[in-house]
Design goal:
It contains eleven helices and 17 strands. By secondary structure, the protein is α/β, with parallel strands linked by helices. The chain folds into two domains: 2-159 and 316-349, Quinone Oxidoreductase, Chain A, domain 1 (Alpha-Beta Complex), CATH 3.90.180; 161-292, NAD(P)-binding Rossmann-like Domain (Rossmann fold, 3-Layer(aba) Sandwich). Strands 3, 4, 5, 8, 9, 16 and 17 form a seven-stranded mixed beta sheet that branches. A six-stranded parallel beta sheet has the order 12-11-10-13-14-15, covered by helices on one side. Helix 8 (253-256) links the parallel strand 13 (239-244) and strand 14 (259-267). Helix 4 crosses helix 5 (186-197) and helix 4 crosses helix 10 (298-311). The two termini are 19 Å apart.
Length: 350
């Protein structure tokens, strides 16, 4: 099936309209007409060749919301017309210990990404959501129950939402816990919303005084400008958990010092250059931990979507046409978006 898409033929080429092929619907497949696709910073890194191994042509996009147009004869969970989502994964081995536990993101053979992943379909690698349609194995399709007018703002939940939800749930964030969210961007703004909805006392950390009111409006109980030494010192030994969403190299010690005994800081951003080595004594003498977390499994992604629908939670977005993607990338590099761009995929027909 030929599908209109937006992608790049090389790292130094702009994104442009291209025609791609989607496979026929197999017995366990779901065909989806894509309504909206969020724009993740990973899209920019991959298509620009900033991460090793980009396969061209590259069609990014792993925050997908759309409507089912066809299902395979062995599919029972979805019907034509259903509103569904697709996140960062479209397959995994489904036989290793991690997959058996519903943690496909840690598949021991490597999960298949929604784009740039190995596949038998032409041209040999997966193509993502900057397209009119996609065909995905039913086990990797998610039900969306938000109201129709919220669907564009649901799209970023498929990456930014689950990337923050998974560690918040794993480290048991909830009532009685004091939780820090470092960085108020695409990921961090969702972290604030979700931690607040889970009942925690939420403190947002930002380098920008200009984001103080924004963070409060998102649901933070307090805001710390991390460049202010006095504000930071006031929170020493106060946090049960810190979710650090910053993808740039920075001093982790400034935040581990804020953890209580047995507190954990979890990193979800991969910096281009490594963080300075942490002060090990600060960890040992307070039994603190620095951990990492990768997106989330299919079951917990569904849990997150259902929770967000119940609580009325969506991302804060700016809608763009597919033709504006390069301009959006340029703005993303300057952090000039509050807080996620979302493509209106109907513009692919323009």
């Amino acid at each position: 099936m030929s599908t209109k898409a937006y992608g790049a033929y090389a790292a130094d080429k702009p994104l442009e309209p291209i025609a791609i092929e989607r496979r026929p619907v197999g017995a366990h497949d779901v065909a989806i007409a894509i309504a909206y696709c969020g724009v993740c910073h990973s899209d920019l890194h991959q298509v620009r060749g900033e991460w090793n191994g980009t396969l061209y042509p590259c069609v990014p996009g792993h925050e997908i919301v759309g409507h089912v147009t066809a299902v395979g004869d062995q599919v029972s969970k979805f019907s034509v017309g259903d509103v569904v989502g697709v996140g960062c994964m479209v397959d995994s081995c489904q036989s290793c210990a991690s997959c058996d536990e519903g943690l496909e993101q840690y598949c021991e053979k490597g999960f298949i990404g929604t784009y740039n992943g190995a596949t038998n379909d032409a041209p040999g690698h997966t193509m993502g959501g900057y397209a009119q349609a996609i065909v995905v194995k039913d086990d990797f399709v998610l039900k969306v129950s938000h109201a129709p007018e919220q669907l564009a703002a649901v799209a970023p939940l498929l990456c930014a939402g689950i990337t923050t939800w998974s560690p918040l749930r794993h480290w048991n964030v909830g009532p009685g816990k004091t939780v820090g969210i470092v960085g108020i961007g695409g990921l961090g703004h969702m972290g604030v919303k979700l931690a607040h909805a889970l009942g925690a006392h939420v403190v947002a950390f930002t380098t920008s005084e200009a984001k103080r009111q924004d963070a409060l409006d998102l649901g933070a109980d307090a805001v710390v400008v991390s460049r202010n030494a006095d504000e930071m010192a006031a929170y020493a030994d106060k946090f049960d958990f810190i979710l650090n969403t910053v993808a740039a190299s920075h001093d982790l010690d400034a935040f581990t010092a804020l953890l209580k005994r047995d507190g954990t800081m979890t990193l979800v951003g991969v910096p281009e250059h490594g963080h300075p080595a942490p002060n090990v004594a600060a960890l040992i003498f307070r039994r603190r931990a620095i951990a990492g977390s990768l997106i989330g499994g299919i079951a917990e992604t569904q849990e997150m979507l259902d929770f967000c629908a119940e609580k009325g939670i969506t991302a804060e977005i700016e809608m763009i046409a597919a033709q504006d993607i390069d301009a959006a990338y340029a703005r993303m590099q300057k952090s000039d978006v509050k807080y996620r761009f979302v493509i209106d995929n109907a513009t692919l027909t323009d």
